[in-house]
From TrEMBL:
<feature type="transmembrane region" description="Helical">
    <location>
        <begin position="232"/>
        <end position="252"/>
    </location>
</feature>
<feature type="transmembrane region" description="Helical">
    <location>
        <begin position="110"/>
        <end position="129"/>
    </location>
</feature>
<feature type="transmembrane region" description="Helical">
    <location>
        <begin position="47"/>
        <end position="79"/>
    </location>
</feature>
<dbReference type="InterPro" id="IPR020846">
    <property type="entry name" value="MFS_dom"/>
</dbReference>
<keyword id="KW-0472">Membrane</keyword>
<feature type="domain" description="Major facilitator superfamily (MFS) profile">
    <location>
        <begin position="47"/>
        <end position="531"/>
    </location>
</feature>
<protein>
    <recommendedName>
        <fullName>Major facilitator superfamily (MFS) profile domain-containing protein</fullName>
    </recommendedName>
</protein>
<feature type="transmembrane region" description="Helical">
    <location>
        <begin position="473"/>
        <end position="495"/>
    </location>
</feature>
<feature type="compositionally biased region" description="Basic and acidic residues">
    <location>
        <begin position="1"/>
        <end position="10"/>
    </location>
</feature>
<keyword id="KW-0812">Transmembrane</keyword>
<feature type="transmembrane region" description="Helical">
    <location>
        <begin position="204"/>
        <end position="226"/>
    </location>
</feature>
<keyword id="KW-1133">Transmembrane helix</keyword>
<dbReference type="Pfam" id="PF07690">
    <property type="entry name" value="MFS_1"/>
</dbReference>
<feature type="region of interest" description="Disordered">
    <location>
        <begin position="1"/>
        <end position="28"/>
    </location>
</feature>
<dbReference type="GO" id="GO:0022857">
    <property type="term" value="F:transmembrane transporter activity"/>
</dbReference>
<feature type="transmembrane region" description="Helical">
    <location>
        <begin position="328"/>
        <end position="353"/>
    </location>
</feature>
<feature type="transmembrane region" description="Helical">
    <location>
        <begin position="438"/>
        <end position="461"/>
    </location>
</feature>
Length: 549
C-alpha cells in the first residue's frame, strides 16, 4: 500500500548541460499524473459525504415521533405514581390529561436526560475513537459505529412493542455511542487523510449535515402523519441505517493504511520509552516488580485511549525555536468558548420567541427549517468557493516564501474562522437587542453566514499536527466541542430561566455573544508560524530533539 505523503515537497534538481532535452516533457507528464492523483484523492474524499448525510438524516428523522413517545411515557409514569385511578383499562390516557403541569415537567426532564445522554456519548467516545482509529484504521470503526446505529432502532421497536422502559434506555445509549456524531468525526478523519486541501470538502461535509437535517425534520413528521402509527418511522430509520452500513462496507476505502498505523505505533512506542526514562523508579523484587508493572501497563494502556489525544493539545516545545507551540491549545479554548455560547442559542431562541413574541410552534418550525436549508446551501455551494478563492489569493500574495503543501491557506482558515465566529456573535447580539419578531428572526437567519466555523476548525487542526496524528487531534477537538455543548445548556439555560420574566429577557443572547466575541480574540492569536512543517521543509538545527517536552 502506498502512503499518500501529500505534504512532502517536490525536490526538483536544477537543469544542467547534461540534462535530457525531453526533461520538460517528462515534467509535463509528471504534472499530469499529479493532477490525476489529486482528482482521485478528491473523489475518494467525496465518498464520505453520503455517510454524514444518511447518518444525520436517519438520526433526526424520528425526532418529532420520539417527542410524542416521550410525552406518552411521561404521562403513563406520572399517573401510575400519582393517580393510577385515571388510567383507563385500555391503557390509553386521554391527551387532555397528559397536559397536566406535573406531566409536562416530567416530560421536560425526560427530554433533558435524552439530550445529556447524547452529549455524554460524544464526550466518552471522542478520545477512544481517535486512539483506536490510529491503531486499527478508520473503516473498522466506521463499520462498528454504523452497526450499533443500525441496531438501536430495532431495539427501540422491541421496546415499544413490549412496553419496556429499560430497552428504550438501552436504545438511547446505543445511539449515543454509535450515532451521527461518531460517524461525522470518523468521516472528517477520512477526508483529512485523503484530501490535499480538506477545507472545501469539509465545508461540503458540514453542508451535507444540514441538508440531511432539513429533509429529516419534514420527512419524519410526514411518515408518522401518513401512517398513523408511531412505529413506522423507526422501521424507516432502521432501513436507512442498513443502507448506510452497506454503503460503508462496499464504497468506503481505508484511508489510514497498515504502513501509517505501523508508523504511528512506532511513534507512540518511542514517546512511551522517553516517558519511562524520565520517570524511572527504584527497582523492586523481581516477582513483585513484574506483577506491578503488568498492572500498571494495563491501566496505562486503557487510560491512554482517553489521554493520548488530549495530550496533543498541550503545548509542545519546538526544537527549532525553543518556544512552546500553543496553536492547538488556543484553538481548543476558542472552540470551548464558541460552542458554549452557540450550542444552546437555537433552543433558547425558541423559548424566547414563544414567550416574548408569542411565536407558534409552526412558525418556529418554519424558521428552523429555513435556517437549516440556508446553512446547507451556504456550506454546499458558496463556502467552498470562498475557501478556494481565499487560498489562491493567500498563496499568491505569499508566493515568495517557501510554503509546505499543508499550509494551503492555513492562516486564511484562521481568519475565516474568526470572521464566522464574529458574525455569530453580532447576530446573537442583534437577537438580544431586537424589539420585534421580524428583526429577531432576521438576526437568527444571519447565523447562516457564520456556519463555516466547523470546517475551518477541522482544517486548522489538520494543519497543526503531523499527518499520522491528525485523527487523534481531531478527536481531541471533538471532545472539547462536546464538553462545550454540555456546558452550554447549563450556563445559558440557567440565565434564560432566571431572566425570562424580567426587564432583560434577552440577556442570554448577550452572554452568548460575549462568549463568542472572546472566542474571536483567542482565534486571532493563532499564528501561521506554529503550523506543522514536515521535516524536509525544516531548516537544519543543532538543537537536540530530546528537548521536546
Amino acid at each position: 500500500m502506498i502512503i499518500d505523503d501529500r505534504r512532502a515537497p517536490d525536490q526538483e534538481p536544477e537543469p544542467t548541460e547534461t540534462s535530457p532535452l525531453l526533461e520538460g516533457q517528462d515534467e509535463v507528464q509528471t504534472s499530469q499524473r499529479l493532477s490525476r492523483s489529486r482528482i482521485m484523492r478528491f473523489q475518494r474524499a467525496h465518498l464520505a459525504l453520503p455517510v454524514v448525510f444518511l447518518g444525520f438524516m436517519s438520526g433526526t428523522i424520528t425526532t418529532t415521533t420520539s417527542i410524542q413517545i416521550g410525552n406518552v411515557i411521561a404521562c403513563h409514569f406520572w399517573y401510575s405514581t400519582h393517580d393510577p385511578s385515571k388510567i383507563p383499562e385500555s391503557g390509553n390516557i386521554p391527551e387532555e390529561l397528559c397536559q397536566a403541569p406535573g406531566v409536562q415537567e416530567m416530560f421536560a426532564r425526560i427530554v433533558q436526560i435524552i439530550v445529556l445522554v447524547d452529549i455524554c456519548g460524544a464526550v466518552i467516545t471522542s478520545s477512544p475513537i481517535g486512539t483506536l482509529s490510529a491503531k486499527f484504521g478508520r473503516k473498522p470503526l466506521l463499520i462498528i459505529a454504523a452497526l450499533i446505529f443500525a441496531i438501536s432502532p430495532l431495539v427501540l421497536l422491541v421496546a415499544l412493542y413490549q412496553g419496556s422502559l429499560v430497552l428504550i434506555i438501552v436504545s438511547t445509549a446505543m445511539a449515543a455511542v454509535g450515532g451521527p456524531r461518531q460517524l461525522s468525526l470518523l468521516t472528517t478523519m477520512f477526508i483529512v487523510d485523503v484530501a490535499a486541501d480538506p477545507g472545501p470538502i469539509l465545508s461540503i461535509l458540514e453542508g451535507s449535515v444540514y441538508f440531511g437535517l432539513a429533509i429529516s425534520f419534514a420527512l419524519g413528521g410526514l411518515i408518522t402523519r401518513w401512517s398513523g402509527n408511531l412505529t413506522y418511522v423507526f422501521w424507516v430509520q432502521a432501513a436507512i441505517c442498513t443502507v448506510l452500513l452497506i454503503y460503508i462496507i462496499v464504497a468506503i476505502p481505508e484511508s489510514f493504511g497498515w504502513e501509517k498505523r505501523v508508523a504511528r505505533a512506532a511513534e507512540i512506542a518511542a514517546e512511551r520509552s522517553r516517558g519511562r526514562q524520565r520517570t524511572s523508579r527504584p527497582t523492586l523484587s523481581r516477582s513483585r516488580s513484574v506483577s506491578i508493572e503488568r498492572v500498571q501497563e494495563g491501566v496505562q494502556e486503557s487510560a491512554s485511549a482517553f489521554s493520548r489525544p488530549i495530550a496533543l493539545i498541550w503545548p509542545k516545545r519546538n526544537p527549532m525555536t525553543g518556544k512552546r507551540n500553543k496553536r492547538l491549545l488556543l484553538l481548543s479554548i476558542g472552540v470551548l468558548l464558541a460552542y458554549a455560547g452557540s450550542s444552546y442559542a437555537g433552543t433558547a431562541y425558541l423559548v424566547y420567541a414563544t414567550n416574548r413574541f408569542h411565536a407558534t410552534p409552526d412558525q418556529n418550525g418554519y424558521l428552523l427549517s429555513a435556517i437549516a436549508a440556508g446553512k446547507a446551501i451556504y456550506l454546499l455551494i458558496f463556502f467552498p468557493l470562498i475557501l478556494k478563492a481565499g487560498h489562491r489569493v493567500y498563496l499568491k500574495n505569499r508566493s515568495r516564501e517557501t510554503k509546505p503543501k499543508n499550509s494551503l491557506g492555513s492562516q486564511f482558515d484562521a481568519h475565516l474562522l474568526a470572521f464566522s465566529l464574529l458574525v455569530e456573535s453580532l447576530a446573537l447580539l442583534g437577537v438580544g437587542l431586537s424589539t420585534n419578531k421580524v428583526a429577531a428572526n432576521t438576526c437568527m437567519f444571519i447565523l447562516v453566514l457564520g456556519s463555516g466555523s466547523a470546517p475551518c476548525t477541522s482544517a486548522l487542526v489538520s494543519a497543526s499536527v503531523e499527518p499520522l496524528a491528525q485523527g487523534e487531534a481531531l478527536s481531541a477537538i471533538a471532545l472539547i466541542r462536546s464538553i462545550a455543548e454540555f456546558l452550554s445548556p447549563v450556563i445559558l439555560g440557567s440565565i434564560l430561566s432566571s431572566t425570562t420574566n424580567t426587564r432583560l429577557p434577552g440577556l442570554v443572547f448577550l452572554v452568548a455573544s460575549i462568549l463568542l466575541f472572546f472566542a474571536v480574540g483567542i482565534v486571532a492569536l493563532i499564528r501561521d508560524a506554529d503550523r506543522y512543517v514536515p521535516p524536509d521543509n525544516a531548516q537544519p538545527s543543532n538543537v537536540d530533539a530530546s528537548a521536546e517536552e
